[in-house]
Amino acid sequence: LLPKTVDIVEVGPRDGLQNEKTSLSAQDKIDFIDQLSLVGFKRIEAGSFVSPKWVPQMASSDQVMRAIKRFDGKRYSALTPNLKGFDLAMQVNTQEVAIFGAASESFSQKNTNCSIKESLERFAPVAEKAKKHNIPVRGYVSCVMGCPYEGDIQIKDVVWVSKALLDMGCYEISLGDTIGVGTPLKTKALIEACLQVIPSNQLAVHFHDTYGQALANILTAIQLGISVIDSSVAGLGGCPYAKGASGNVASEDVVYMLHNMGIDTGINLEQLIQVGKSISAKLNRNNGSKVGEAAP
Ligand code: HMG
Ligand code: MG
After folding, report:
1. Which of 4, 50, 232, 274 sees the fewest Cβ atoms within 10 Å?
2. Where does the record place the Pyruvate carboxyltransferase domain (predicted)?
3. Cβ–Cβ < 8 Å for 102, 143
4. Taking Cα atoms as reference points, which of 63, 39, 61, 69 lies closest to residue 234?
5. How far is the CA of 199 from the centre of ligand 1 (A)?
């Protein structure tokens, strides 16, 4: 059942950098994203059109989107939680947008200042307008394995929010283990439940590696037919809501595992490792990739 190829969505420039203490200049972000393109990623989440008061690290997303090199066959996406964000994203030629909901009421409030239901009401016009512009929309669901405020989250709550986003027109749903609490058996139960209502080619997984479970969870997911994985180079990021939390699973570690299983990603691992080393140095942080640390 293992897929022959897996698409990796590199979310370091967005999910990684949005949670780093050091804010990069727009130019440094542009260089970083251009390097990620050259390494072979076909999908890069390059920014976020959200309130700069809420997430100051993403404030230069318009400059970044304007200046990054666009390569044929690659898509550069950004988060757009409302119409204001969508319109800003369109002004700078964003090729794909993402709306982001949660399976936890408390997290929805803290993250987007509204209930789950209200968030869906804000996303609907974004999805509608995106359709008119022929812009693919990705849907995220946060807290699929647990919430920093509510603890356990029921699978049925993940399933209904995911289905609501799918019905709104999202071409793909990315299941976010926001605080990295998931484990393989939980991952299996969750994905099996989601597969009842969402085809495997429209599901992606987005694991943060806080508890060191991400690779095991990813292996579980691909064994169930999932072939789109979100990760961030050097495991950039953290989580403002979970003390000591690490970022997304490191892209280098995912690519290393997949290539050694005979699964193609289109990524040049050696070059990726170098990008991970240089961005870690630039941010003055430890390299969050085990593979990156081990490599000469
Ligand atoms: P709000 O305060 O309810 O919205 O925020 P509002 O419409 O009342 O607007 C308030 C102010 O924000 C106004 O400015 C608006 O103009 C401005 P003011 O008049 O006060 O100067 N504003 C905007 N500015 C720029 N771009 C926009 C925008 N919208 C309003 N799009 C809002 C609602 C969603 C905007 C706010 O709560 C927000 O920006 N939240 C940030 C959420 C965020 O970015 N979280 C991180 C990403 S999600 C994530 O990381 C999880 C994920 O990785 C998956 C996982 O791991 O689980 C995806
Ligand atoms: Mg995330």
Report:
1. 4
2. 6-273
3. yes
4. 39
5. 30
What is the CA(16)–ligand 2 centre distance, in A? 8
Which residue, chain included where needed, has tokens 């509204």? 114
Alpha-carbon dihedral 123, 127, 128, 129, rounded to 10 degrees: 100
Nearest-CA residue for atom 56 of ligand 1: 178
Q: What is the pTM of this model?
A: 0.97
**CB-based pocket (< 6 A), ligand 1:** 15, 18, 48-51, 54-55, 79, 81-82, 84-85, 88, 100, 111-113, 140, 142, 176, 178, 206, 208
Interatomic CA distance for residues 208 and 16, integer angstroms: 10
Closest CA to 40 of 5, 4, 90, 82: 5
- Between the CA of residue 118 and those of 80, 97, 107, 126, what are the distances in Å? 15, 19, 13, 13
